[in-house]
Amino acid sequence: MTPLAATQLRLLESFMADAPSQPATNFWRCVELPVLAAALPAEGRGLDVGCGDGVLTKILRDLRGARWTLVGLDPVAAETALAERSGLYERVHTSGADNIPEPDASCDFVFANSVLEHIPGLSTCLGEMARCLKPGGLFAATVPSAHFHDCLRSREWAEIDERLAHFHYWSEDRWHDELRTAGLAPLALADSMSLCEVRRWEAWSNATGGLLYRLSGRRKKPVAIQFQLGIRRGLPRTARWLAKPLARLVGHGLFGHVDPDPAHNGGSLVLAHKPRG
């Protein structure tokens, strides 16, 4: 097993122990997080856009072996309350990314993990993130690619986008135009999710959250239904041994998988720098 495959399996085992009702999300994260971790610096002051409760960012930091000073940003007060208690952040803001309460040029890097596709007014937010970066600072984000729909077996794109609250699938040219307008110098997009991985995610998503969404008449998001049913919990201590076989089942045959064809990739790593001078 390659180092990447071993890392993905280890992450998926941990995620399945903590959230066994979310195999699709867990699989996506185990593929995506190592890609983002490798792109981030090992130290510096960072802005975590869409920080949530901070749990994934701690995993990201540990994957990188980083020594970061972090500021968290999320519009959901329940999430930022948890982030504040995590001890991971110097400061946490309950705010959208369209008006970031941080000074100009105050961060060495800005990052977002599977967040930007959920923001309708993303162009304004990119300008705010760029404002917070120091000259030479790094912008890094993982997002679904422009090929995401093409990777799906299902043609029910509207339902999937509605359920996931996805607003953007920008092409590389669109990303470069938007980043330049925001005052950033874009780098080439990198692939973060192969066609086979997207289809594995899709199969588990349709069998879990997608099924709940359809049974609700498309009135409630899967997360809300999971909370309502009381299934959004980790495995009991006595049953955590199940996480290993569950992880191997969810990701079977795809740990460390790479597809060299960009048209066969459903996720992108977006990178840019703020020019000096």
Report on this structure.
The chain has 12 helices and 8 strands. It is an alpha/beta fold and 277 residues long. The chain has helices spanning 3-18, 23-39, 55-64, 77-85, 122-132, 148-151, 157-164, 172-182, 195-207, 209-215, 222-229, 243-251; strands at 43-49, 67-74, 91-94, 107-113, 133-144, 185-186, 190-194, 265-273. The radius of gyration is 18 Å and the shape is globular. Helix 1 crosses helix 2 (23-39). Strands 1, 2, 3, 4, 5, 6, 7 and 8 form an 8-stranded mixed beta sheet that branches. 44% of the residues lie in helices and 19% in strands. The model has no long low-confidence stretch (mean pLDDT 92). It has one domain (3-273): Vaccinia Virus protein VP39 (Rossmann fold, 3-Layer(aba) Sandwich), CATH 3.40.50.
CATH class category name: Alpha Beta
Span between N and C termini?
45 Å
Query: How do the helices and strands follow one another from N- to C-terminus?
Result: HHEHEHEEHEHHHEEHHHHE
Given helix and strand content, the structural type is: alpha/beta
Q: Ranges with pLDDT <50 over ≥5 residues?
A: none
CATH superfamily: Vaccinia Virus protein VP39
Q: Give the beta-strand count.
A: 8
List the helices and strands and how they pair.
Elements: H1 3-18, H2 23-39, E1 43-49, H3 55-64, E2 67-74, H4 77-85, E3 91-94, E4 107-113, H5 122-132, E5 133-144, H6 148-151, H7 157-164, H8 172-182, E6 185-186, E7 190-194, H9 195-207, H10 209-215, H11 222-229, H12 243-251, E8 265-273
Parallel strand pairs: 1-2, 1-4, 2-3, 4-5
Antiparallel strand pairs: 5-8, 6-8, 7-8
Helix pairs in contact: 1-2, 1-12, 2-3, 2-9, 5-8, 9-10, 10-11
